[in-house]
Design brief:
The complex is a heterodimer. By secondary structure, chain A is mainly alpha-helical. Chain A contains eight helices and no strands. Chain B has seven helices and no strands. The radius of gyration of chain B is 19 Å and the shape is globular. The chains are: A mainly alpha, B mainly alpha.
Chain lengths: 190, 180
């Protein structure tokens, strides 16, 4: 029963991975290999595709593996499997959260925690910026002079346009994504 | 029913344009959930993320479940989660069916190089918005800065940072109000 196996495997992936996305990749790889659902090179493709398409990486990978292993129904079953642990766990937690949200103790806890999440998001921004601004195959190291040669100027230009659009004109994030993808296309054609 | 449909459609729209999930979704949430629909405050969304960080699972789905539950209970959380994963299902199945070398297509690569920059700009913009609205005092700025450094450079687990700062929050606020 391949559908049941897909469902259970991805449920396991959804249940045992903290931190989302990239943290799940080794787990996904293990499950795929032990069931022989995909070849190693197909797995590398999946990571690239899951990254380059909208949606959470774990969900995208689940759909892709499920489809490759057992067609459309396989994709649906694997996706349901990866999403259900989050859904059930948070349903249990949210029941308590909304009950104790205004409790003095939880106010104190979240007073300290909110800035951490802001710091975390900033770390995520830096991580994405590193991959967006540096030329392919280079990493952030070495002297400042070296920095100039590895930075991708087109990316800086798109970044400035995006920030102006967001801050000055309050353009919707979706439109920013669309505009930037078009700019990315235009710049490489020039 | 109308409300459930609205939850589904709103999360569908966010899922279809969020590249990278998790934190990359935050700018969309800020616009669609906080500003447009007023389904949750900015502080609440940060709390959902904090809880999502400490529980296993996919952060984007954790957040969808929270907001859906707040609006319409269990049916609401299912509608929001279904909306969140629906674009992935459609897009990925289509790619798996018709494009064998999708990630190597020149047009995809070049468009994605632009999208990646947009994602960086969107997240950076969100950080500055949050610093203005949700980090209320100097201690908050200090905690935000310290956790950024420890996570980005010292590679400390986000869970550890969340637990430490929760304790710190309790201690400092108790000491302060105790003085008053």
């Amino acid at each position: 029963m391949i559908y049941l196996h897909l469902f259970l495997s991805f449920m396991k992936i959804g249940l045992f991975s903290f931190g989302g996305g990239y943290a799940m990749i080794p787990l996904i790889q293990k499950e795929i290999q032990s069931h022989g659902w995909l070849s190693a090179s197909e797995f590398v493709d999946i990571i690239a595709i899951a990254e380059m398409t909208p949606g959470p990486i774990a969900v995208n990978s689940a759909t892709f593996v499920g489809y490759k292993a057992a067609g459309i129904l396989g994709g649906i079953v694997a996706t349901a499997g990866v999403a259900i642990p989050s859904l059930v766990l948070i349903l249990i937690v949210s029941n308590y959260f909304f009950k104790f949200q205004d409790h003095p103790l939880s106010k104190l806890i979240f007073y300290g925690v909110r800035p951490v999440i802001v710091g975390l998001i900033f770390a995520a921004a830096v991580f994405v910026a590193q991959t967006a601004f540096l030329r392919q195959g280079t990493t952030l190291s070495g002297s400042m002079l070296n920095l100039l040669s590895i930075i991708d100027l087109k990316s800086i230009f798109i970044f400035i346009i995006a920030i102006i659009g967001l801050v000055k004109f309050e353009i919707h994030p979706i439109l920013i994504i669309v505009i930037s993808s078009v700019l990315g296309l235009i710049f490489t054609m020039l | 029913m109308k409300e459930l449909w609205k939850l589904f459609i709103t999360f569908c729209r966010m899922g279809a344009f969020t590249f990278g999930g998790g934190y990359a979704m935050l700018p969309m949430i800020q616009k669609e959930i906080v500003e447009k629909n007023k389904w949750a405050t900015e502080e609440e969304v940060l709390d959902y993320y904090a809880i999502g960080q400490c529980t296993p699972g996919i952060i984007a789905i954790n957040t969808a479940t929270f907001i859906g539950f707040k609006r319409k209970g269990i049916p609401g959380s299912i509608a929001a989660t279904a909306g969140m994963v629906f674009p992935s299902l459609v897009i990925i199945s289509t790619i798996a069916m018709f494009f064998t070398e999708f990630q190597d297509l020149a047009i995809v690569k070049h468009a994605f190089s632009g999208i990646r920059v947009a994602v960086a700009a969107l997240i950076a913009n969100t950080v500055f918005k949050l610093l203005k609205t949700s980090v209320k005092d100097r201690l908050g700025v200090l905690i935000a800065g310290a956790s950024f450094v420890s996570i980005a450079f010292l590679k400390i687990s986000p869970i550890v940072a969340v637990v430490i700062s929760a304790t710190l929050g309790i201690i400092t606020k108790t000491v302060r109000t105790g003085e008053m």
